[in-house]
Amino acid sequence: MKHLRTTLGPKSKSELGMILPHEHVFVDLRTPDQPGYAEANTEDVVRLMAPEIERIKKLGVTALVECSTGGVGRRADIDLAVSLATDFPIVVPTGNYREPWIPEWVRHASEQELEAWMLRELTEQIDETGFQAGWIKLSAGDDGMTALETKILRAAARAAAQTDAVIGSHTIKGRVVMDQLDVIEAEGYRADRFISIHTQEEKDFAHNVAVAERGAWIEYDHVGRGEDKEVAELVIKALEAGCGDRLLLSHDRGWFDPALPMGGTPKPYTHLSTVLLPELKRRGIDDGTLIRLTHDNPFEAFAR
């Protein structure tokens, strides 16, 4: 039986309902060499972010995928603290972001060392938190992968192949996604265990369809950030193109930012539930399809 690996342990599909597949609890978009990088008082983060979790719990959301990875301030200990304070499972990644958000140790590590690091976090625990990473989060340059980003991807594919973990990547161009899939398959892993994050940023819709037809997940994660009419039309267009079984929806919102006083002002994770889903229903999308998009697909993408 497959499970989501969360801060609160493995969760089966029967334990879960709606899942948000791309959000952030804590992010630091400064590079890792900056003073104060990823530093925050845990109690301050809980104070700011726990109310945001409580809001979506009341809307029927049962889990959230944290997309902050290495290089952009991943703090698994803070994710755990927020999770425990709200009794709400959070799925946390291993992996690392793209250049220039790459710590020196990752830059100098071999592929074998990176593979071993990710494998340990996927099968044992992240740092000393007591819970496993649920997936691998990476990124690629807008115009193509650098040699360093390719090294990280190869290591990720090897670790993922041993665990069935999904690899998600912040990648803007569809042709770069295809290059990433080539690397993954060359390392013996599968396209259907890859998420093209921010697929909506590729404006040539044919590339969206091509990625889905290759077997990968496509993710429209600008709900509440894009114009509601345009987001709804894009979702319907993807459904009409036969991509419904490979489509994920989320906000890419939150979050506590340690570069801002008291973490800044979070943006709620509620727009999908309160605005977009009712709009899709109004436009004729049936309840079964909406459940597939918000319950079934996220579970199938991230569970292993």
UniProtKB/TrEMBL annotation:
Database matches in Gene3D superfamilies: Metal-dependent hydrolases
N6-carboxylysine PTM positions: 137
Keywords: Hydrolase, Metal-binding
Cofactor note: Binds 2 divalent metal cations per subunit.
Keyword field contains Hydrolase: yes
InterPro entries named among the record's database cross-references: Metal_Hydrolase, Phosphotriesterase
GO MF annotations, alphabetized: hydrolase activity; zinc ion binding
Protein residues bound to Zn(2+) 2: 137, 170, 198
Binding site for Zn(2+) 1: 22, 24, 137, 252
One family name in Pfam for this protein: PTE
N-terminal signal peptide: none
Cofactors that this protein relies on: a divalent metal cation
PANTHER family found in the cross-reference section: PHOSPHOTRIESTERASE-RELATED (PTHR10819), PHOSPHOTRIESTERASE-RELATED PROTEIN (PTHR10819:SF3)
Family recorded in the similarity comment: Belongs to the metallo-dependent hydrolases superfamily. Phosphotriesterase family.
The protein's name: Esterase
